[in-house]
Target: 3-oxoadipate CoA-transferase subunit B
Amino acid sequence: MSYQKLNRDQIAKRVAQDIPEGAYVNLGIGLPTKVASYLPADKDVFLHSENGLLAFGPPPTPDMEDPELINAGKELVTMLEGGSYFHHGDSFAMMRGGHLDICVLGAFQIAENGDLANWHTGTADTIPEVGGAMDLVVSAKKVFITTEHTTKKGEAKIVKQLSYPLTGKNCVDRIYTDLCVIEVTADGLKVIEMVDGLSFETLQSLTDAPLTNMTAITA
Model:
């Protein structure tokens, strides 16, 4: 059977489904920021951005754009009722103080034990962009990763052991890719969802680390 990969918006929409009512959530730069567009308006979720925003909303319509309201990725956002903005240092105090329930980040690699590499590939021609990722992964109660399952060259991003510089050890709880959703557990990587038409054997062939197929159990 053939299968269709999720696009980046579909990945973000899938993540939004797993964010519970009342959660305080940091959205990292890139794909994670798209999650803001897919949170239901009737669900109270308090989005945090490391540059100093709390309770921001989806991107504005053209007539509501405010150049002073931006997230950490310099993208325009809206503020929800009761939202606030504050000093960068206060924002990091929230992060380091363990006040965030979930952080959603991108990744270059994720190891089978939950190690994360997302700030540098180690190559000489790339610019390191650690930002607040190291603070987030050691402080947030849960770490969700959004990423394509493989690189543009077809190399696995989910690996037995990292080959890129470390962001955080044993920190990833769940991985959302364009092919599947994976739970990171003490017993290894558990596949809990796959896109329609994708076989577990094909998914495993695109993954360097060993997987366990839980889809038949959770369906």
Observations:
- The longest strand covers residues 79-85.
